Amino acid sequence: MQKISALIPTYNEEHNIVEAIDSVAWADEVIVVDSFSTDRTIELAKAKGVKVIQREYQYSASQKNWAIPQAKNQWILLIDADERVSDKLRVEIQKTLQKSHQKEAYWIKRQNHFMGKKVRFSGWQGDKVIRLFQRDKCKYEDKNVHAEIICNGSIGYLNEKLIHFTFKDVAHYLEKWDRYSSWSAKDHFDKGQRPNLYHFMIKPAFRFSRDYIIRLGILDGVTGLIICSLSSMGVFMRYLKLKQLVKKQEK
User: Fold this and answer.
1) Which overall architecture, per CATH, does domain 4-166 show?
2) How far is Cα 32 from Cα 35, in angstroms, rounded to an integer?
3) Of 40, 79, 103, 206, which sees the most CB atoms within 10 A?
4) Taking the model in full, what pTM does it have?
5) Cβ–Cβ < 8 Å for 234, 211
6) Is 76 buried (19+), middle (13-18) or exposed (0-12) by CB count in 10 A?
7) pLDDT per position as a tens digit, 16-28
C-alpha cells in the first residue's frame, strides 16, 4: 500500500481532537495543522505523539494549501476535527491505495449528525467532499468559504462515508454560522454582487422550502425543521453582511 499522510486542521478543538486523531492513527503520518489554539488542543495532540504545525489562520483554503505541501507522503487524507474515519472507510481507503491504478482524488460522502441526531435529509443527504487526494496534483480553490479541491487529474468515488458531527450545540452552530456568513459575504462582495429585495426575501424563503419540502427535511422531524430554518436565516445574514460591505465601500 502506498503511504499516506493525514492532516487535521484545528482551532480550539480539545473536545474533538483525540477522537479525530484516533480515527486516522493507522496513517503513516498524522499532522495537526493548528491556528494557535488557546485551549488544550495542542497539549492533547502532542500527547498522542503526532506532528503539530502552527500558522495564523486567514481562511480555510489558505490554511490547507499551506499545510498540504508539508506532508511527506504523496497521498493525503484531510479531515476536520469534527469528522471521524470509520473502520469501513479506513479499509476502503487502504484497499484503494493498494490498487495498481488510482485516480488523483476521491469524493467521500458524509453522514452528518446535528446535536446528537443523525440527519438523513434536510438537504444534507447529498453531502460529499474530496478528502483523499494526491499531494502534488491537488489544491483548494482560493475562496473564503466552501472551497473545494481543484484536481489536475481524474476524480473517483469511495463508497463508505465519513462521519461528521457538525455542531455540538446551538451556541456552537451560531458561532460558526456567524463566521461563515461573513466569509461568504466577502466572496460575493469580491465578485461585485450587490443585494436587493430578491436576496432578502426570495432566496431565504426558497432555501427553506427547498431543504424542508423538496429535500425532505420534514422527515428529519424537529431536527430537520431547526436545520432548515437556520440554513434559511444563514442566507439572509449573508446578504445583510454583504449590504454592510457595500455601504462601507460607498462611504
Assistant:
1) Alpha-Beta Complex (3.90)
2) 10
3) 79
4) 0.88
5) no
6) buried
7) 999 999 999 999 9
